[in-house]
Write a structure and sequence with these properties.
Largest sheet: 2 strands, antiparallel
Radius of gyration: 20 Å
Number of domains: 1
Number of helices: 3
Helix content: 10-25%
Bound molecules: iron/sulfur cluster
Strand order of the largest sheet: 1-2
Shape: elongated
Distance between the termini: 59 Å
Order of helices and strands: EEEEHHH
Structural class: alpha+beta
Strand content: 5-15%
Length: about 90
């Protein structure tokens, strides 16, 4: 159902006719580690995550798996070239 409380207008799994059924009856604001993530949205009631109702719990045991602002080790690459491709490039 569409949220009518803090994330007004957004479809949410926890919303039903009786209201928000999430623990505490409302979403929780983002935490410091969420700064820079594209899932953070400014609402009149504060900054909330569009994916999770409780961002702090996503960071409790390591990095949030949906964060868009973290670089993973594989993104950086190892700086080595594939020798086969390199030799082909040289031959061309
Ligand atoms: S996706 Fe993760 S890092 Fe991004 S705002 Fe939500 S909880 Fe924070």
């Amino acid at each position: 159902m569409v949220c009518t409380s803090v994330k007004e207008g957004y479809e949410c799994f926890f919303m039903n006719k009786k209201g928000c059924e999430f623990n505490g009856g409302t979403c929780h604001t983002v935490v410091e580690q969420c700064e820079g993530c594209q899932k953070v949205k400014d609402f009149p009631t504060g900054k909330y995550c569009l994916s999770f109702p409780d961002p702090a719990s996503k960071w409790r045991h390591g990095n949030c798996n949906m964060a868009t602002h973290l670089k993973t080790a594989s993104d950086k690459g190892n700086g080595k070239l594939n020798p086969l491709k390199a030799s082909k490039r040289r031959a061309a």
